[in-house]
Protein: TetR/AcrR family transcriptional regulator
Organism: Nonomuraea salmonea
Amino acid sequence: MTPGESTQAALILKVATHLFAALGYDGTSTRQIAEAAGLNIATVNYHVGGKRELYLAVMEAAHQAEKAALERALERLPGDDPVAALHRLTDDYLDFCVDHPEVPALWMHRWLSDAGDITQLERQYVKPLMETVTAALRPAVESGLISPDADVEYTVWTVIWAVHGFAKGGVLDAEGRRRAAGDRAALRRFRAHLHRVVHRTLGLPGDPR
């Protein structure tokens, strides 16, 4: 692939990511992607194949970004203060989704049965990451830091549901205006709430920070 072709392929992937995140797979056409990229459909097909192949490439890129962020977060998990380390892990995930809102948007479309004929992505991407996180938290359960009554897997899912919802839709203020991750006060308030949820759901010792 020549440098020019590589640039075009990267542009197509970027535009497709934006449109799939905004409109979903079912609501996006190859023509829309081509027009938004300033290219013709033949050029898009040349670089990525059809719409399905492009969607798979977008989801693969999103997964790799999320996986890399998670690996970095888990590398920082051990520490002198294990409770603070668990809260830091929550922060790292929230910060990733705030910085990359297209990732939760892509997955939330799938929650609504978008791209229903492409069924392997959850097994291929989501399940291994969930298993990695729950395995990383197992020592905290075995040591008694996390309450034996806590459902660790559902706590992780609760964080995912909450963070994706906030990153995608935000909250409404007193005047009915939507406040999302770009609003520093809303983000700070959500972060504090998320810490309280995780702290109390896992039965961690001390007061939530």
Observations:
- Strands lie at 171-172, 178-179.
- The CA atoms of residues 116 and 164 lie 20 Å apart.
- The chain has a mean pLDDT of 94.
